[in-house]
Amino acid sequence: MDIKRIGIGSVAGTIVLFLLGMLIWQNLFTEFFDANSGSATGVDREAPIMWAAIVGTLFYAVLLTLALEARSASKSLVDGLKVGVVVGALLWGTADFILYGYTNLSTLTGAVADMLLEGLRGGIAGGVIAAVLSKVGD
Fold first, then answer.
1. What's the pTM value of the predicted model, to 2 decimals?
2. Where are the domains of the chain?
3. At what angle do helices 77-102 and 50-70 cross, to 10 degrees?
4. Strand partners for 37
């Protein structure tokens, strides 16, 4: 594991995760998640704080990159997909179910759907990170 590989993988992952996040939550599934929000009101910002969203997405990409780099097995696109699905679903399943347990931000259906979509997003990003890292020498 070297800092160059972690940096390159993290930048590639951040870009993919950010774009997929916009596509999934702001375009494809907006109505679904609006219908599956909990009873909490006034929790969304009128204008998102983009730097904070990008930093959070970067942290997610670093986690995926570290998970891939920690594996001693091959790091193919398929390996990246597998690792990304597991990391994404576990990470967001953790957040979604804890938030569901303590807040009224989402319905159970919304929490499960978010976890599954995050597994998909993490898988795609993991595949891209693995593909990019396969082009970068050790």
1. 0.90
2. 3-39+50-135
3. 130
4. 106
Check residue 107 and report its DSSP letter. -
Residue 99 near residue 111, CB atoms below 8 Å: yes
CA distance 93 to 116: 8
Q: According to the 3-state scheme, what is the secondary structure of 5-47?
A: HHHHHHHHHHHHHHHHHHHHHHHHCHHHHHHCECCCCCCCCCC
Residues in the chain: 138
Q: Which residue, 128, 117, 109, 95, is CA-closest to 28?
A: 117
Digit-coded pLDDT (tens) for 32-51: 998 988 888 778 888 989 99
- What is the Cα–Cα distance from 55 to 63, expressed in whole angstroms? 12
Tokens of 63: 């986690």
Position 120 scores a pLDDT of: 97
The count of C-alpha atoms lying within 13 angstroms of the C-alpha of 102, restricted to the half-sphere facing its C-beta, is: 6
Who contacts 117 (Cβ-Cβ below 8 Å, separation ≥6)?
A: 24, 29
Question: What distance in Å separates the CA atoms of residue 42 and residue 64, rounded to the nearest whole number?
Answer: 32
